[in-house]
Specification:
Largest interface: A-B, 36 and 36 residues
CATH superfamily of chain A: Tetracycline Repressor, domain 2
Number of strands of chain A: 0
CATH class of chain A: Mainly Alpha
Shape of chain A: elongated
Radius of gyration of chain A: 18 Å
Keywords (chains A, B): DNA-binding, Transcription, Transcription regulation
Protein name (chains A, B): TetR family transcriptional regulator
Order of helices and strands of chain A: HHHHHHHHHH
Number of domains of chain A: 1
Oligomer: homodimer
CATH topology of chain A: Tetracycline Repressor, domain 2
GO molecular function, one term (chains A, B): transcription cis-regulatory region binding
Pfam families (chains A, B): TetR_C_11, TetR_N
InterPro entries (chains A, B): DNA-bd_HTH_TetR-type_CS, Homeodomain-like_sf, HTH-type_TetR-like_transc_reg, HTH_TetR, Tet_transcr_reg_TetR-rel_C_sf, TetR_C
Helix content of chain A: over 70%
């Protein structure tokens, strides 16, 4: 059950009170209005406790968001491509079905369009790290001869996440198992593999 | 050439100096920090000129964004499904390749996750209106017997927009004709139609 694993990962990352406060504050006010003071107040901690861990607001946010988001994408390739792609899509679904992440990610994407430094850090520490897990699934399928080495991996990886983001954060509508199956089917088609 | 039409629509909507100022301000500072004062200053107009047209900041933003976004989705169904779906996807691509819209849309989506009133208005005045054009293309294909009436239209319409949004606004990467073709192929597959 990949979604259960992803949810367990989400929980494991938020045992820390300061991390919780960063996530709550980010979900409530967004990156632009988030301050070290606000996080310290919410965490009932001193600002010094925050600065001991992170040199800046951006570092704090990236560290906390990457800590929640990268493990949520962890998928170890099996020898079953359909199961692996389903795990990837279900992982995105679990990640964005988290009430806080469903607010935090669109806010960071919006901020990144205006802030190139945040954009680069977000790509490096969250995007590229998450996509590495999907790429490993594709590479394993190529190595088994199930998928052509000419496949457009970039597009396949986009397809694993984009419809889920759009449904939850773009249209504020629900996902569900039938929706996840449709996304998996689209990704398999883009991999040049026919579904079940 | 659907993308040329969409771009002409984008231009036709922005001949007005105040509308230009709303779009510039929204792209630069986002909905949260946008003020009637800021727009008036940028437009070199009085605030009274803004309040004559719109009763509130939210009304102003929605009117301007809908005025740019809804005509950009206008597609009249032909008898060629591949051409129609290509026009829809190219329309989304032209819409989000506009430098201002690529900042404005993610910002409004982020804001909508925190502001249910804005969310409802955005769905009604932009989302539903834009999706109506795509639904008409699907309905015409169903009427011609090319697509099953059981098709998951909601998912197909998600697929027309989601990968384009994700590539441009989620990953800050380029699109291009080959990418548009891939999105069209995904949408046709979801329609149960094999591509070219």
């Amino acid at each position: 059950m990949p979604s259960v694993t992803a949810k367990a990962n989400l929980r494991a990352q938020v045992t820390d009170g300061i991390v919780e406060a960063v996530l709550d504050e980010l979900a409530d006010v967004g990156f632009g209005r988030l301050s070290m003071d606000g996080v310290a107040r919410r965490a009932r901690a001193g600002k010094a406790a925050l600065y001991r861990r992170w040199p800046s607001k951006q570092e704090m946010v990236l560290d906390v968001v990457a800590g929640l988001s990268v493990p949520a994408a962890a998928t170890v390739p099996s020898d079953d491509l359909v199961a692996d792609v389903t795990a990837l899509v279900a992982g995105v679904d679990a990640w964005l079905s988290d009430v806080r992440m469903s607010r935090i990610l669109p806010d960071l994407l919006a901020e990144a369009m205006r802030n190139p430094e945040l954009a680069d850090a977000l790509t490096r520490r969250v995007g590229t790290a998450r996509r590495g897990y999907g790429q490993a699934v594709i590479d394993a399928a190529i190595a088994r001869g199930e998928v052509s080495p000419d496949v457009d991996s970039e597009y396949v990886l986009d397809l694993v996440a984009a419809p889920v983001f759009w449904r939850i954060c773009g249209r504020r509508e629900q996902t569900g198992p039938a929706f996840v199956d449709r996304v998996v089917d689209s990704a398999l088609h883009a991999l040049g593999v026919s579904a079940r």
